[in-house]
Amino acid sequence: TYSRRTPSGFVLHVIDTPSLLDQDVVAEGRLEAVAKCIKDKEIDAVLFLDRLDEYSVGAVDAALIKGVTRFFGPSIWDTTVLCFSRGNESSAPPGIDFYELVAQRESQLKKAIVAAGGKSADMACALIENSSRCPTNVDGEKVVSGDTPWITDVFEKIVELVLNSFPYEHNPEVAKKQSNPNSRRKWLIPLVLAAQIGAKFLLDKLLDDDGCRGDENGPFDAQTVRERRQE
After folding, report:
1. Rounded CA gap, 157 and 81, in Å?
2. Spatial distance between the Cα atoms of 198 and 40, rounded to a whole number of angstroms
3. Helix, strand, coil percentages in the chain from 3-state DSSP, rounded to 5
4. Helix (H, G, I), strand (E, B) or coil at 220
5. Is 0.90 surpassed by the pTM of this model?
6. Which residues contact 229 (CB under 8 A, 6 or more apart)?
7. Using CB atoms within 10 A of its CB, is residue 65 exposed (0-12), middle (13-18) or buried (19+)?
8. b/e map of 12-26 (b: 16 or more CB within 10 Å)?
9. pLDDT tens-place string over residues 98-108
């Protein structure tokens, strides 16, 4: 869905995508629909949401990250903030420090993004908790990680990202080329082919010349060598 908001004089255009998973399968039709929706649009920031309490990057998560990279190109991650829902301390299992869990989940997702073709794992991360269990501060703002209002924290990281990176602009051809391993280094093919042809020509010439110089019975005399070369 697409919506337009104007908080405090700032105009925000927001695209809320549907779930990119259909049960345990990557919904490629939805990815394609999103790609068409943002075609020729500059995207200042992407929020990639995952649950904090998943504890690991499973096969489905890895497939989704690869799907996003394949449809939008690796540069999509350059304008991404990783967001973890259920970002309250109750998400940590017994015996695991909450902040260690957050660091662990950040590291896992960033490694999966790099493995899928993302250029860098240097991206901001934010916690999100919108349930009634989320504590609030004196101003009634829902807070995570102590006294941090999570909405303020998310917007601060979006603004910092926007001010320090170029907007993402979807290009289907570029995304397809960057994500298709079969298209990598195709520019080398003509050079390799030319080198093979040149090597064959040189080898044939050397063999021909060698045949003019002699045979299995020994080297030819100078007159025979001249006659063979003329032939």
Report:
1. 7
2. 45
3. 50, 20, 30
4. coil
5. no
6. 209, 212
7. buried
8. eeeeeeeebeeeeeb
9. 999 999 999 99
195 residue type, one letter: A
**H helix runs in the chain, sequence order:** 28-37, 59-72, 98-115, 150-163, 172-179, 188-213, 222-230
Please, what is the end-to-end C-alpha distance for the chain in angstroms?
A: 79
Both tokens of 29, joined, read 């039709």
Beta-ladder partners of 85: 51
Contacts of 62 (CB under 8 A, 6+ apart): 112, 115, 116
Residue 220 · residue 228 · CB < 8 Å = yes
Structure-block tokens of residue 96: 């695991």
Tokens coding 201: 């020509």
HSE-up (13 A, CA, CB side) for residue 84: 31
pLDDT in tens, 13-71: 888 888 898 888 999 899 988 988 888 888 899 999 999 998 889 999 999 999 999 99
